[in-house]
Design brief:
Shape: globular
Organism: Geotalea daltonii (strain DSM 22248 / JCM 15807 / FRC-32) (Geobacter daltonii)
Strand content: 15-25%
Number of domains: 2
Radius of gyration: 28 Å
Distance between the termini: 27 Å
CATH superfamily of the largest domain: Glycogen Phosphorylase B
CATH class of the largest domain: Alpha Beta
Bound molecules: pyridoxal-5'-phosphate
Protein name: Alpha-1,4 glucan phosphorylase
InterPro entries: Glycg_phsphrylas (IPR011833), Glyco_trans_35 (IPR000811), Pyridoxal_P_attach_site (IPR035090)
Number of strands: 24
Structural class: alpha/beta
Catalytic activity: [(1->4)-alpha-D-glucosyl](n) + phosphate = [(1->4)-alpha-D-glucosyl](n-1) + alpha-D-glucose 1-phosphate
Cofactor: pyridoxal 5'-phosphate
Number of helices: 33
Strand order of the largest sheet: 7-10-11-4-1-12-13-17-18
Length: 838
């Protein structure tokens, strides 16, 4: 008997089944009873009960994909910033209210239980979160898709603030059980490292290469189900974990060196130990290089294994498989596929190259030079010698093509080469990714233009048809429906729930934006969400904030290009104005910062200290009172983000024009009814186009103006001399006003601005930023107008659903169509077309 069988009281029956499943997991899966079960046990039992529901649909989905034999897409990413899964799964399976009722009836506090979930923080920031939003959209759109990544034992570090400074703690998220994953012992691929290449001539006179004497590491699969929204589809995120290979151990065991054998075993298993915590910057470490190859190799073998279950002719691969590279991090998959085709499958070069190029597509995520991956040739010589040969061959044929198209242009050959010929020769991974793909995309319109006309200009001249734009998006299931239930309900009452799968439906809000009752309820929801965040701030920071103040939020990784420091200059400017005119009429503000700095990024860490130092002075100044508070929320993460966006009034998106590829935080804020103050950068530009120029606060230099100013010779000191308010702020920072015990502490920050060129042009944008902030304050006094614009922001967010982004990838790059999954009620038990494990 199952829950779909006809019965006279289906609701009651359903509740009983949920309770039964929950109690059985407490007893049989966890081995507890009602006396010994902790709240954490309750979470796990609940998660297992939900997982059971997922698994039914998961098997159906994979069977449907196998039967249809449609083209599939593999999204390879070194990061998946998933966050928590319980509520998201309940929502997507449309069983949240049933489960809430069942669990509450057992005497549990539902919210307390889901707060027990560890978050899967296998990413740094936007790039990893994008991958997670894409998985949700692909499942919701019934696209046969797989996310491939690494099962890091330690995700992004947990941030603590101690005496104002960032401290990093390990995120040992797998120490307790992870109820969402299933280990797949049978999906074990050997990944080779080191060794040498044997070149011989076979009996047909063909040169063949063999990679021998390698040290092998096993990649073991762990699968996590990714449910679509109310559509019976459940896709797979497959993460690889490194396990030592048995042969490898045996060598040492046979020599009688037990300790050495175990040591080696431990060493090889370090490959999947920890996520590198730097965002938008490469670390260049050998272990990271190995991680990238580990992911690339295991995934390529898995893709081919699945392909071969139905096909024998490898030339069909591009018709059945699309591989999307999330930045260059997994780009070693290109030479890896070439190696497998050439050396293991005996495909000749031209066919192998055709197959490879048609299969791969590359997404660029940044133009910051420090983030463009270049691996030393000697890494390859030692660790991936066969891949180096293949890359050299790819480069040779490629440069021949360039020379044919642009005869005599040697400078161009040097610029475009995959190999950078400096004193230390390096492989430029972006060049390899462009040459080895049929599609290269940026992640916002401006960014894609910069790729075509600046960063990859030479490549665009040669292969214009390869370049395209796919503006990023976010999933509204998590970033509105789940994280902001009050607003979701209000919206639903007025325009229905169509927006959950078609975000353009939000346009219907325009018609009610000035309806007094709707606006009043909108304000009440925002107030409620602000009260919740205020309670969080009181609990974690011991700061009482004014919920009638503007919640002015900048939450994202701490990076110079994102210009948290420019925000701080405004904070101090406002503080000085209050001090100069204590009786003045100021619109109160709560400045909320949150974000992690890479542990080795000295300037970013100093900026965190500065924010906290300014907070200490401002928050404890009785003359300021509740007109101004500065809050740094520790440990920015998906879960914390879910608290912040619904409560924000103002979204700070203030990167130097031309530096932020897209941004997705900007979209989450606007979706939740915040107004944006931002530069004409990344997706801000498209947000402006969608919500209307009059409903967003734009300031600062444009990308062209930034470039022109730099070319003319930018002198930040001009602004320092000209602007007394700015001068005062910088003098305070440099002179120890905010660090009385250590007067020189923040001098390096001012030094960067005044003496080291102010690369991100904070001083050039200061005046227009402050003026724009004054406009913000002025508007906030008019709550009706503010609310109207907030509603229009939400109403204009249709374009920024990751569903739209994925539809474009599927249509333009992958050539993939949906495979719909029948409901479980029509599932064929004992289906004879079973195909073994997927
Ligand atoms: C959305 C998101 C980001 C990206 O934010 P940006 O403002 O686009 O840099 C980073 N971290 C988390 C946890 C997010 O949810």
């Amino acid at each position: 008997m199952n829950e779909y069988d006809a019965n006279p009281a289906p609701e009651l029956d359903n509740l009983i089944l949920i309770i039964k499943s929950f109690l059985e997991h407490i007893e049989y899966t966890l081995g507890k009873d009602k006396y010994t079960a902790t709240r954490y046990d309750a979470f796990n039992a609940l998660a297992y009960a939900v997982r059971d529901k997922l698994v039914e649909r998961w098997l159906d989905t994979q069977q449907a994909y196998y039967n249809s034999d449609n083209k599939r897409v593999y999204y390879i990413s070194m990061e998946f910033l998933i966050g928590r899964s319980l509520i998201n799964s309940l929502i997507n399976l449309d069983i949240l209210e049933d489960f809430r009722e069942a669990i509450t009836s057992l005497g549990y506090d539902f919210e307390e239980i889901f707060d027990e979930e560890q978050e899967a923080g296998l990413g740094n920031g936007g790039l990893g979160r994008l991958a997670a939003c894409f998985l949700d959209s692909m499942a919701t759109m019934s696209i046969p898709a797989y996310g491939y990544g690494i099962r890091y034992e330690y995700g992004i570090f947990r941030q603590k603030i101690v005496d104002g400074a960032q401290m990093e703690l390990p995120d040992n998220w797998l120490r307790y059980r992870n109820p969402w994953e299933l280990d797949r012992q049978e999906h074990l691929h050997p990944v080779k490292f080191y060794g040498r290449v044997l070149t011989t001539t076979n009996k047909f006179g063909k040169t063949v290469s063999e990679w021998v004497d390698t040290e092998d590491v096993m990649a073991m699969a762990y699968d996590t189900p990714i449910p679509g929204y109310k559509n019976n589809s459940v896709n797979t995120m497959r993460l690889w974990s490194a396990k030592s290979s048995r042969d490898f151990d045996l060598k040492f065991f046979n020599e009688g060196n037990y300790i050495r054998a175990v040591e080696k075993k431990m060493q090889t298993e370090t490959i999947s130990k920890v996520l590198y915590p730097a965002d938008n910057v490469i670390e260049g470490k050998e272990l990271r290089f190995k991680q990238e190859y580990f992911l690339a190799s295991a995934t390529i073998h898995d893709v081919l294994y699945r392909f071969k279950k139905k096909h024998t002719d490898l030339r069909l691969l591009p018709d059945k498989v699309a591989i999307q590279l999330n930045d260059t991090h997994p780009a070693l998959a290109i030479p890896e596929l070439m190696r497998v085709l050439l050396d293991l499958e005996n495909v000749d070069w031209d066919d192998a190259w055709q197959i490879t190029r048609k299969t791969f597509a590359y997404t660029n995520h940044t133009i910051l030079p420090e983030a463009l991956e270049q691996w030393p040739v000697w890494f390859f010589e030692q660790i991936l010698p066969r891949h180096l040969q293949i890359i050299f061959d790819i480069n040779k044929y490629f440069l021949e093509e360039v020379a044919k198209q642009f005869p005599g242009d040697n400078a161009r050959l040097a610029r475009m080469s995959i190999v950078e010929e400096h004193w230390e020769r390096k492989i430029r991974m972006a060049h390899l990714a462009i040459v080895g793909s049929h599609s290269v995309n940026g992640v916002a319109a401006l960014h894609s233009e910069i790729l075509k006309h600046q960063l990859f200009r030479d490549f665009y001249e040669m292969y214009p048809e390869r370049f395209n734009n796919k503006t990023n998006g976010i999933t509204q299931r998590r970033w509105l429906k789940m994280s902001n239930p009050s607003l979701s309900e209000l919206i639903g009452e007025y325009i229905g729930d169509g927006w959950v799968t078609d975000l353009y439906e939000l346009e219907k809000l325009r018609a009610v934006a000035t309806e007094p009752e709707f606006a009043a309820r909108w304000q009440a929801v925002k107030k409620l969400n602000k009260e919740k965040l205020a309670a969080y701030i009181l609990k974690h920071n011991c700061i009482q904030v004014n919920v009638d103040s503007i919640f002015d939020c900048q939450v994202k990784r701490i990076h110079e290009y994102k210009r948290q420091l420019l925000n701080v200059l405004h904070v101090i400017t406002m503080y000085n104005r209050i001090k100069e005119n204590p009786a003045g009429d100021f619109v109160p503000r709560t400045f909320i910062f949150s974000g992690k700095a890479a542990p080795a990024y000295v300037t970013a860490k100093l900026i965190i200290r500065l924010i906290n130092a300014v907070a200490t002075i401002v928050n404890n100044d009785p003359e300021v009172g509740d007109r101004m508070k500065v809050v740094f929320l520790a440990n920015y993460s998906v879960s914390l983000a879910e608290h912040i966006f619904p409560a924000a009034d103002l979204s700070e998106q203030i990167s130097t024009a031309g530096t932020e590829a897209s941004g997705t935080g900007n979209m989450k804020f606007a979706l939740n009814g915040s107004l944006t103050i931002g530069t004409l950068d990344g997706a801000n530009i498209e947000i402006m186009e969608e919500v209307g120029r009059e409903n967003i606060f734009i300031f600062g230099l444009t990308t062209d103006e930034v470039n022109n100013t730099r070319n003319k010779g930018y002198n930040p000191r001009d602004y320092y001399s000209k602007l007394p308010a700015l001068r005062r702020v910088l003098d305070q920072i440099a002179g120890g006003f905010f660090s009385p015990g250590a007067p020189d502490l923040f001098r390096p920050i001012v030094d960067l601005l005044l003496n080291q060129g102010d690369y991100y042009m904070l001083l050039a944008d200061y005046t227009s930023y402050i003026a724009c902030q004054d406009e913000v304050s002025k508007l906030y006094r008019d709550q009706n107008e503010w609310t109207r614009r907030a509603i229009l922001n939400t109403a204009g967010m249709g374009k920024f659903s990751s569903d739209r982004t994925i539809a474009e990838y599927a249509r333009d790059i992958w050539g993939i169509s949906p495979v719909c999954v029948k409901g479980a009620e029509s599932r064929q038990h004992g289906d004879s077309s079973a195909h073994g494990s997927f």
